[in-house]
Amino acid sequence: MEKITLDAMRNFIIENELTDSVAISLHPDSFDDLVMEYLDTNGNQIERPFEILGIEILQDETGNVPTNKFNILDTVE
Fold it and tell me: This protein's superkingdom (predicted)?
C-alpha cells in the first residue's frame, strides 16, 4: 500500500479474507492518519477497540512497523 487509507484497509481485509483471528498493527503516524480519516467519515465517533470490518487495528509500540506499512498479528493463542 502506498498510503494507508480507510478504503485501502477495507479492500485489503476483504481481498485477503481476514477474520477476527488477526489484528493489524500500524506505524503510529499511519495509525493516526487512519483514525483521523475514520473520525471524519463517521462523524467524530470511534469504537473501542478500533476495528475495520471486525479486524482490530492497533498502533505499533515496538518501533518495528515502518510508515505506510503494517504487520498482521495472530490473535489466537
Answer: Bacteria
